[in-house]
User: What shape does this take?
Amino acid sequence: MLLSDYTFQTVAIGSAILGLISGVLGTFAVLRKQSLLGDGVSHAALPGVVLGFILIGSKNTEFLLLGALLSGLLSTLLITTIVKYSRIKFDSALALIMSVFFGLGLVLLTYVQKIPNANQAGLNRFIFGQASSLMRRDVNLMIICGSILLLLLIIFWKEFKIFTFDSEFAQSLGFSPKKLDLLLSLMTVTGIILGLQTVGVILMSAMLVAPAVAARQWTNKLSVMAFLGAIFGAISGIFGTAVSSFIPKLPTGPTIVLFASLIVLISILLAPGRGILHRLYRQKHNRSLNIERRAENDSTI
Amino acid sequence: MTPQFEIQLIAVIVAVGCALPGVFLVLRKMSMMSDSITHTILLGIVLAFFITHDLSSPLLIVGAAIMGVVTVWLTETLTRTNLLAEDAAIGIVFPLLFSIAIILITRYAGSVHLDTDSVLLGELAFAPFNRMIVFNTDIGAKAIYTAGTILIINLVAIFLFFKELKLVTFDPVLAAVLGFSPTMVHYGLMTLVSLTAVSAFEAVGSVLVVAFMIGPPVTAYLLTDDLKSMLIISVLIGTINGILGYQLAAIFDVSIAGSMATMTGILFISVFILAPHRGLLSIFRRRKMQKTKFGKMTLLFHLLNNESSFIQEQVSQICIVQNHLNWSDHFIKDIINRLQGENCIEVDGVFIKLTDKGRKTTIQEYNELFS
Assistant: This one.
């Protein structure tokens, strides 16, 4: 009965699509050692959301998303510029820019709250996410943007692959790393912003990292990793939504993150070849092999 | 003390207290760990609250500090498996702990005033309402004393263990050889970071703690190469951010902590552009100078090289030189003008020739470079 519930279906589909997109995009973010970009960009989106509201004057989702997108993109550009032209490392630049942007967003938010007769209530909800408030309209937007993102990824797959693993080689082949970097950042930022509404600012970073890290344990092939990442993301989305609607007073976003983390834990422990259990088994096996060999050597002497 | 003065005092104390451990975070490439810790201390506070059922209990701070250290330990244990990079480990640990905290709050603490907004945002303007009362006398806002204590702890710890911190930060292997345990120093530092985060987030919210911890040290990092001056400059920048941030907030009547963070960003960008040696402007100026110098030398060498050849008449035509060197019209004109100004070449219609002085400088430069 619950599974055929309209609201449940909407939220579940939305979370699944979000997990799918962030699983695929996260693959590249994790491999490029930019796992925390999700955390940074989603915080940096706040001033864009509020500015979008100030300029348009309504809480129209598309405009707020556009503001978030622009401000997220600006923050990524600033971070890359700082890293390029100074000795400041990526992580410091990220921490600085995201917190400063967030501070600016707070300033704007408190400014908006003084404008009389403005229906600004709930603007910060937008950033902190409220999966249960997802509407069909939002889900449709997600499906459209998600399809465009996936299509772009398929078209530029070869380029992104070379660029991720060997950007100098990519350059020698005539691809511009600068443009590829910009395109990939733009796509990642779009994915992150799409997820903001569902799981919120802090949990979006988990959705970008966890499925991809879990997928990494099972394969050494980029395409398989992206595919598994998408599946793991979607599974966490659906299961998280389902469990949180069966158990009362269980917030959806955090439950999704719990599931994603659980998948990571299982993958790290059990993955064949790389996993911790396999490693322990191999160590034990090697040890017994060593003892046997030593025994053989002793007997020959 | 007026409330305005009290707020500014708290702002400065918090900003300085955060900047001190921040210097080591930036130098140890652990900036994002501060973001992680400021979020996970929420779980520590929630767990401690379940034990004490008292929101003003000092045990909450202890719980938060322990959780900060646990966060670092979990992240490092994950990283040590070599199955994922350090940034990915951070990106998994802190959302997980934070999610657990939120689930616990929504399920079990709904009736208590412990909401996520106040943790994430914080508000400095309310700080003076919470008074410190000893023997029935009001001795100032409570935040002055909590933040002040942490500031003093940070100062004393850095003063006492300056040598150890410096060694472990720049050369952990040497530190280990000399008998200082890098692990001990590392976890000591992380305890300081957690304590500082707990004391600050009440006033400014967890996200902005990151701005105060990382902002001033990163700005100072562009201005100096010396650890001691970096600490001192960070403290100064923190103070400036606190005071100017408050003034801005008072003028526009907006969030004080947010305005302090914005000020941190403005100050950083100004230094990033204007700093001597490392600033964007001086980098571009240096590149431009190097380009001109290289252009001048290339033209001089080219002319000297052609002097011996008997087709000199032809090759020293400006347009042919330009063709040989593949330069733009603008660039070759600029270089010729500069060299003419220095009396190194003379222009005769479409021809350019080295002067005696020019020949001498060219040979001298050549010898400097290639002998």
